[in-house]
Amino acid sequence: MNNRKLTLHFILRWVLILTSGLLILGIAGGVWLYAQLHNSLPQLNGQLSLAGLSDRVTIQRDGLGIPTIHGTNRLDVAHATGFVHAQDRFFQMDLLRRVAAGELAEIVGIAALPKDRAARIHRFRTRAREVLPTFPETDQTLIARYTNGVNAGLSALAAPPFEYLLLRTTPQPWQPEDTLLVIYAMYLDLQGREAKRESFYGIMHDVLPAELFAFLAPPGTEWDAPLQGLVFSTPAPPGPEVLDLRRQPPTPLAENDQPFRHTDETVATGSNNWAVTGSETAHGSALLADDMHLGLSVPNIWYRVSLVYPADNGQERQITGATLPGAPAIVVGSNGHVAWGLTNSQGDWNDLVLLTSPMDDPETYLTPEGPRRFQQVQETIAVKDAADDILTIRETHWGPVYDTDHQGRLRALRWVAHDQEAVNLGLLRLETATTVDQAMTVAQQTGVPAQNFVVADADGHIGWTILGPIPRRFGHSGRTPQIWADGSRGWDGWLQPAEYPRIVDPLSGRLWTANARVVSSEWLAKIGYGGYRLGARAQQIRDALITMEGPDEQDMLALQLDDRALFLSRWQDLLLTVLTPETLDDNSSRRELRHYVENWGGRAAVDSVGYRLVRNFRGAVSNRVFTPLVVACIQADEHFNYDWIRQQEGPLWRLITEQPQNLLDSRYSDWQQLLLAGVDDVLEQQANEGSDLTTYTWGAHNTSRIDHPFSRFVPWLEAWLDMPDIALPGDINMPRVQTPTAGASQRMVVSPGREEQGIFHMPAGQSGHPLSPHYRDGHQAWVQGRPSAFLPGSPVNTLTLIPTPTEGRQTP
Question: Which of 135, 170, 346, 461 could form a disulfide with 139 if both were Cys (CB 3.0 to 4.6 A apart)?
């Protein structure tokens, strides 16, 4: 017995020792981890010596961590901008360059390989290296100084950003070409999927009767609100001589045959901007409003900054706005003389070229100059913890071989992004522009993804044009894939600034864009059709602006937050007419649904059950109406998605109001039966989601998921890394665009010369470090739409960068 007690005592003693040891190791590990995280925070105060500066630079941060950078020259300011970008956002910058270059797998592993292979066919790193030496020497020097600042900021951190600790890798230094890669990353984000839309148009063109294709893919609808030209009308539905569904068996409604596959990639990107001339505002100064809609993540894509340095006349110049980490220029903002904002233009900036080969030589393809051989290029993709991947790319006269179509034909991609004109530092020239005309000329010579550029100046003028390169297309509209081999179609250089469409000081005193069609006729032919959005959002903005009398900054913010459901109001009326007393007899679910629809509130409000029901009703009816009309497209290509055809509301509304019998699926006796089936689809969807109608609110669906890239892979970090999940108002076809993962990446309202009255907020916070007080401190203002200042506030932290003693001026 005594031996047993001794043995038990011995075991307990060693268990205690081991447990204590593990506890000590755990505590030590936690202390070490916290120390590493804390050491990767940026330096906010004091003095730091940097090589390469010509004079001291002061970085003052306000209560939200927004820096104001004071320097004696633009190069030193660029150096310091690189420094603060790296200190606050280096991992985000690294992801941007890797996304564009197709180099994510090098740090993430094999899971990123498909994304890398898709990006690598564009060979953007090679293009960046080739294009950079063609820049003006002054721009090359500025990029070099920015690059030095980035690497100095990274080196000044006592530990690398925390993401590299989790990835078990080391951050690589910034290269000058990487600044071009972040611009290419925006090309991928804003234009990289547009070839898919052209492909879908090609399928519809090839497999549907011409009259049906024209009806289902109209160039516009009654919702159009262009700045120039007229509203487009939807063509009439084709008659039974073209298509008669009553003579065909019912179309299967299997899930795989649905013509809509609603995803964030079809709705995420967009934007609003508008301007009002000084003669129409409350204070007599022109007003500009801008909110860019993108996919939302942590940290936010934009980084706020104010740059202060002497102008040529010796006076102080201050430029304030949003930058893209990785690049030294203000993307949207104000310089005190002009203020500018951007929305994605949705023009046609790429074309799919059908390739033809001689029968006896599949290794060649035909061009206007005769047969050419495909050029083979091999790209090596490094993969973490795995062997390198070798990607063979076939290059053509027009661009890389991109894919094969539904008939197995090879297609090359002709894309603005592949040309030298695609990227430059033209945005820097906006810092010195003083008038609308000067700013518009700069915009027309800037190399970025083409944007609707709206500008206001301190003299009260406003203007619109396209910012970015416009190809000179000939022989075709670019809407569907075409053969270019005979030379009758293609691109012939680039438009010059004098050829760009532009509007200055319209009679209404107002300009607006919202990713919809802006112009008509010759101007539209120049911009092309790139899938511009339904005009409902633009129309709601236009109508609100026209009725405003003497608007000010607060009125502009209120319009950015406008969640009125004007687009769906006629669908609410329709749904109520479908729910007749006869259809409600002995059906309590339909009666309850009608109650909520009657009291929907007319807004995309978080507590509205009726809004969600009306919205779902439109979606259900769309599926039932369009499935038999486009089923041939789905059969030709299982990836076909009619949701990419953005003017679908035109044909849909004509069909359900005119109710042509020949275009009604034979499974229904009449259109009323189809609409009622749509009602039951809504109820079935609600039941399948396990929700009671009383809690089936719009907010329950439209709950934000604004996450850090790591949280999806390390779920236990979600609470620490992600923004809180919050029910948000807003939707797609209204000014307050909001989905769970996309929405306003910033909101800005500013009058040039009155910046102190301006408004700016954005989701998440200024810092990308979760231990920083500025990781999420601006988020609630964005959620609530609460006005926050455009200009940075009073300094809270001050860091002075000084040249090393052997460089620049000697400093004490």
Answer: 135
